[in-house]
User: What shape does this take?
Amino acid sequence: MPRRKNDTLLKNAFEEAFPHLLRFCFENADDIFDTGKDFVFMDKELSELFPELENHGGNRFVDMLAKVFLKNGKEEWILVHVEIQGAGDKDFAERMFQYWYRIYDRYKVNVTALAVFTEGKNQKRPDRFYKSFLGTELSYKYNTYHIFDHSEAGLLAMDSPFALIVLAAQKALLMGKMPEEELNRERLTVAKALINSRKYNHARISRFLYFLKQFVYIEDPKINRNFDKKVDILTGKHNTGKGNRKRY
Assistant: This one.
């Protein structure tokens, strides 16, 4: 699975599960954010703010900028910037600060930033940018989350679709490190958790399973057919792992 494709799949999953992302990452999210209003994802605006990233092969395509509304009795809005960071980047904290000041300079609105780290347990996870020179001092701190901040058991206990996306990201790191038959059992654990919750309709389950099969990718068609059959048994419906290619 090419890295760029996997990053794009993860970004799309984050967008569809965005209300659950807010609840997962921000305490009392339902008291802060008005999830009844539509979120606006501002990819074009982000591209305009950082044209050099795209022009020089940067990874803008895994960044997200979303307009959200608050529950404060007013039509205020803030920008929540989510950075999906995989491989290490020594300038990462500085780049996070660049995002903040360019967004604030353009829109003059409150900005909260979240960096989601998606590599192994030993991945560095910087959470601030600091500069000091001759009495002038700057400290910029942002929110961080690593996909291994919670164990598998902890994620399954949350009963949250975003927690299952995080769990899928954990399982994706196992690709190439174990036999595909074993990887399929790991992948099925995630599928079972969503289906057995009995909270989601056929369309949403179908979109999640498409994401899961593409994100935790297995080449062997026999193993994939076996996965589909087990999903059929769990759902009691037609095969939900094929045909529907909408985003989760």
